Amino acid sequence: MAQELKSSQRLSDTVAHQLEQRILEGALKAGDRLPAEREFALELGVSRPSLREAIQKLASKGLLYSRQGGGTYVADQLNESLTNPWAQMLESHPGLEGDLLEFRALLETQCAEWAASRATPADLQHLDLALQSATSAIASLRADLVAEADRGFHQALAEAAHNAFAAHMMSVVQGLLQKDILFNLGELIGVPVASRMLVDQWTAIVDAVRQQKTAAARQAAATHAGFFRETLHQAQRAQARREVSELRADRRSTSQPMRQVRS
């Protein structure tokens, strides 16, 4: 009996390790619901008690959680542990934004280079779908859809790099830049030339990755990252000018001398 218990525990540890690996590699993403217990146990080739115990192990680490109404889901603990403190720092120290954009460019270009040498057919299919979604979102002229599709594209590129840390860091960086991405893309999609440039840049990255041209993939990603940084700065400066103009207009309207009424 004791031997059977130890064997079960070892099996559950193996299953827990497999699930943890899927989370690290992005095969199971934050918010994903695990398959039904019966089907999942069959997929993994283990008993339901062993699977249940493995899930409990990962839940105790904060990687999985149960939601009211049923179902077990992947938690966002890996990203949140990095995102939350940095989000507060960015709010208090806006000057850090430049450092974040610089790091994003470095991460993006490296991911593109790795993807060009490591991407599998499944990765290429995922990138193609992400590119199609981004192109369709541009045509919708809705900034929220474009921002969501842009995030999906960059995440697909990072996952194609097959580096667990790079994939999770891309998710963290994209989350920290969420407001800036939404703001910038909202300004860009109304300009046809800029929209076409975005699509061309995304396409160039995917083409270079598909052709396994590492230098071209890195350069295409660097061009896109540079375009984002420059257009964001231009949009921010334009927004600042608009705010100054509105402030001046408000001051003029409140400082107009009252006309004297003649008796």
Alpha-carbon Rg, integer: 24 Å
User: How much is the average pLDDT?
Assistant: 84
Sheet with the most strands: spatial strand order: 1-2
N-to-C CA distance? 108 Å
Query: How would you sum up the major sheet?
Result: 2 strands, antiparallel
Anisotropy-based shape: globular
CATH fold description of the largest domain: Four Helix Bundle (Hemerythrin (Met), subunit A)
Q: CATH top level of the largest domain?
A: Mainly Alpha
Into how many domains do the coordinates divide? 2
- Helix-strand pattern: HHHEEHHHHHHHH
Can you walk me through this structure?
It contains eleven helices and two strands, in the order H-H-H-E-E-H-H-H-H-H-H-H-H. The chain is mostly helical and 263 residues long. A two-stranded antiparallel ribbon has the order 1-2. Mean pLDDT is 84; it is low at 1-6. It has two domains: 7-74, Winged helix-like DNA-binding domain superfamily/Winged helix DNA-binding domain (Arc Repressor Mutant, subunit A), CATH 1.10.10.10; 78-239, Four Helix Bundle (Hemerythrin (Met), subunit A) (Up-down Bundle), CATH 1.20.120. It is globular, with a radius of gyration of 24 Å. Helix 2 (37-44) packs across helix 3 and helix 7 (143-160) packs antiparallel against helix 8. It has helices at 2-25, 37-44, 48-60, 77-92, 96-118, 121-140, 143-160, 164-176, 178-188, 192-210, 214-254, and strands at residues 64-66, 72-74. A hairpin with a 5-residue loop joins strand 1 (64-66) and strand 2.
